[in-house]
Design brief:
The protein is an alpha+beta fold. The protein contains eight helices and 16 strands. The strands form four sheets. Strands 8, 9, 10, 11, 12, 13, 14, 15 and 16 form a nine-stranded antiparallel beta sheet that branches. Strands 2-1-3 form a three-stranded antiparallel beta sheet. A hairpin with a 7-residue loop joins strand 8 (235-246) and strand 9. This is Cysteine and histidine-rich protein 1-like protein.
Length: 371
C-alpha cells in the first residue's frame, strides 16, 4: 500500500514539468519560423515584377506551303514532282508517266498483274486516268534553277533555262569551226573578243570543215536512199501490230510476233524480243527492242530486199518518231530469217511500248531489181 502511494506521487510530480517543456519547445519553433518568414519577406523587392513562364524555343522553321503541297502531289514511286503527265489509280495515288510505264513494263516482263505500290489495287492503262488538276498545280509550284539558283515557276523554268538564264551553259559561236570553249552565257561576249578561230585561215580550218561535211553527207545519203527506194516499182508498205507471247520454258520468256502478212507477193512475219533475249530483262534498267524479219513463203530464187521500220499510225501517240535505219538482206531457200536488228529507240520509249497491250509500227520493204 505504501509503495503504490509513493509511485503515484512521483508520477504526479513529473506531469507538470513535462507540460512546461512542451510549451517551451512550441514557443521556440514558432519564434524560429517567424524569424525565417520575416527574413524572406525582407529579401523580396516589392517593385520587382512577377516572374514569367519560360517559353520553349525550337530551331525548327515551319515548312512552307509549297513544300507541303509538293510532298502531297509527288509521285508515289520516285517521290519527285514530275513535269510529265500524272496518272492516278482508282484510289487516287499519283504516279508520273515514266514510273507508270516502267511499272507496267516490269510486270509484263514478269508475267504478273500490275498493282499500285500503295494500295495494291489493279492498275492498267484502261483503269488509270490522268489527273490534269495535279499537273496544273505542279506547274505553278516554284523550282530552283540549276544554273543561277534562282526560283521560278515550273511552267516557266524551261524557257528560263534555255533563253534567259545568264548562267546557262553555252558553246562558242565558232564551235562549228572547231572551238571547244564552253561556259556560262554571261562570259560568252568576253570569250568572243579573244577567240582565235575567226582569224584562222582556210588551210587551218580545212580538217574541221571536212569532218562536218562528212557528217552532213551521211545524213544526206540516208535521205537520198529512202527517196530512191520509194521510186522503185516493187514496194511493200505494211502496218503491223506486235502481240505479246510467252515461251513454254520453265522460266517463261516474253517475245512478240505479228500475224502473217502479204507483201511483194510473199508471206512474211516479224518477231521481236527484249534485251537480246536476256533471261531476266525485268532486272535491268536499260532496255532495248530488237526485231527479225522472217520469210514464210517457199522460194526457189534469191530475193534482194531492203527494209526499215517507222512509227505506226495506230500506236501510242506519245511515242516519238523512230529514226529509220535501212537494212539490206538477201533471202534464199536456205536463209529465210534475218538477224535480230535493234530498233533505234531509247529505254524510256521501250518501256512505253511494253506498257501498251500491243506495239504498232510500219514496215517498208523494197525489192531491188536484178541487174
Amino acid at each position: 500500500m505504501t509503495a503504490e502511494i509513493t509511485t503515484t506521487g512521483i508520477s504526479n510530480d513529473l506531469q507538470p514539468n513535462s507540460s512546461i517543456d512542451l510549451m517551451n519547445l512550441s514557443s521556440d519553433i514558432i519564434e524560429s519560423t517567424t524569424a525565417t518568414t520575416n527574413s524572406l519577406l525582407d529579401s523580396i523587392d516589392v517593385n520587382e515584377p512577377p516572374t514569367k513562364k519560360c517559353k520553349v524555343t525550337t530551331n525548327e522553321k515551319p515548312r512552307l506551303l509549297e513544300d507541303r503541297i509538293g510532298s502531297i502531289l509527288s509521285c508515289c514511286i520516285c517521290l519527285d514532282l514530275s513535269t510529265l503527265p500524272i496518272y492516278q489509280c482508282v484510289n487516287g495515288h499519283l504516279m508520273c508517266a515514266s514510273c507508270f510505264n516502267h511499272l507496267l513494263a516490269d510486270c509484263k516482263l514478269k508475267d504478273e498483274q500490275t498493282t499500285c505500290p500503295n494500295c495494291r489495287c489493279e492498275i492498267s492503262k484502261s483503269n488509270c486516268t490522268r489527273n490534269l488538276a495535279v499537273e496544273k498545280t505542279i506547274s505553278e509550284l516554284p523550282i530552283q534553277c540549276d544554273y543561277c539558283l534562282q526560283t521560278y515557276l515550273r511552267s516557266e523554268i524551261k524557257a528560263h533555262r534555255i533563253q534567259n538564264c545568264a548562267e546557262r551553259p553555252v558553246v562558242c559561236d565558232y564551235s562549228l569551226l572547231g572551238c571547244n570553249w564552253n561556259g556560262p552565257f554571261h562570259t560568252l561576249s568576253s570569250h568572243l573578243t579573244v577567240c582565235e578561230y575567226p582569224s584562222k585561215t582556210g588551210l587551218e580550218l580545212i580538217e574541221t570543215i571536212q569532218a562536218q561535211k562528212r557528217a552532213y553527207d551521211e545524213e544526206k545519203k540516208c535521205l537520198e536512199t529512202v527517196v530512191d527506194l520509194l521510186s522503185l516499182n516493187q514496194i511493200g508498205v505494211s502496218d503491223l501490230i506486235l502481240k505479246p507471247f510467252r515461251t513454254d520454258d520453265f522460266v517463261a520468256k516474253l517475245y512478240f510476233e505479228t500475224s502473217r502478212f502479204t507483201a511483194l507477193q510473199y508471206q512474211w512475219q516479224v518477231r521481236a524480243r527484249i534485251n537480246d533475249n536476256n533471261p531476266h530483262p525485268h532486272t535491268t534498267v536499260n532496255r532495248s527492242l530488237s526485231y527479225q524479219l522472217v520469210l514464210k513463203s517457199k522460194i526457189s530464187q534469191t530475193i534482194d530486199l531492203k527494209f526499215f521500220l517507222l512509227k505506226g499510225p495506230h500506236g501510242d501517240p506519245s511515242t516519238s518518231q523512230v529514226q529509220p535505219i535501212i537494212y539490206h538482206f538477201e533471202f534464199n531457200p536456205n536463209n529465210t530469217e534475218t538477224e535480230y536488228l535493234k530498233l533505234p529507240i531509247t529505254s524510256q520509249e521501250c518501256n512505253r511500248m511494253l506498257s501498251s497491250s500491243s506495239i504498232s509500227f510500219r514496215l517498208l520493204m523494197v525489192q531491188l531489181d536484178k541487174p
